[in-house]
Amino acid sequence: NGVLYQFWVKDVSTNKWKMIQDYSKSSARWTPTKPGKYLYGVHIKDEKSNQSLDAHLYKEITVKGSLFGKTIMLDPGHGGSDPGAVNGSIYEKNLNNSLTKLIAQKLTSLGANVIYTRNPDSNIRMELDQRAAIANQKMPDLFISIHHDASYVKGYSMHYSSYRPYLEVSGAYFKDSKGKTHYIIREVNRRAYYIENGVEKYITIDNTAPATIYDSTPSSAAKNSKIFANLLLDSMKELKFISPRNNPVSDHNLAITRWTNMPSVLIEAGPTNSTLANKSNQNAIADKMVDAIKKYFN
Fold this sequence. Notes:
Elements: E1 3-11, E2 16-24, E3 36-46, E4 55-63, E5 71-76, E6 86-87, E7 90-91, H1 92-109, E8 113-116, H2 128-138, E9 142-149, E10 156-160, E11 172-175, E12 181-188, E13 191-196, E14 199-204, E15 214-215, H3 220-236, E16 244-251, H4 255-258, E17 264-271, H5 274-277, H6 279-297
GO molecular function, one term: N-acetylmuramoyl-L-alanine amidase activity
InterPro entries: MurNAc-LAA_cat (IPR002508), N-acetylmuramoyl_amidase_3 (IPR050695)
Pfam families: Amidase_3
């Protein structure tokens, strides 16, 4: 007599079985749509048998996505009592949250482990040092801080810091207003210290800082931050409804990118306006950002 085969698959994450092909003499093809653990089953019986099955075989299968094993931390900017940029009824923090969730969904579907500084479903305020501390405790493979600019700022931009005071400062320097180079010896409480004529001095690193600190011997985290920032730019250039700002990739001293000890980039995804609040446009930005992440790791 002939032998009949029936094929099943179970998604372990949902504990649900699905029949791939009912009893027949032919083989079956199954293509998973997401990474994860699955149980693949074959029921076997004689074509003359009155039983539901005469024998069976089950095998566990792990499907790995292109980002399987990678941990990516997303940092939705602002939140709670800090709305970020405001344009009428459009709040930056809401744009940051919605874009973060779209990116997270797409990354998870590719097998990535997505974690957050602030969960985008929460409405709490977090200070920059709290965010950096969480990132440095978890040490993800990549850190992305997601922001939108003021409504009058046109275009998108990417920001990283070659200066990483929590890693090392051996090549960290700045030039003063007279063009003289000073080398940093440490940073404490947003003050970057240096020696001039045997006297210890400091500059305060904030929005009014007199100079930008760079690192002539950047760490691997800083080098990879620059690589990822440029991959983001290349991918975002494919969008039709928004363009990059002038000098869209910047090496400067934003707190969240200089205090984190892994590859980290802050993206200003565009102005806080109705175009960027459009769900279709948000989805397109998320797609391009995920494309850049895939290129970075692969």
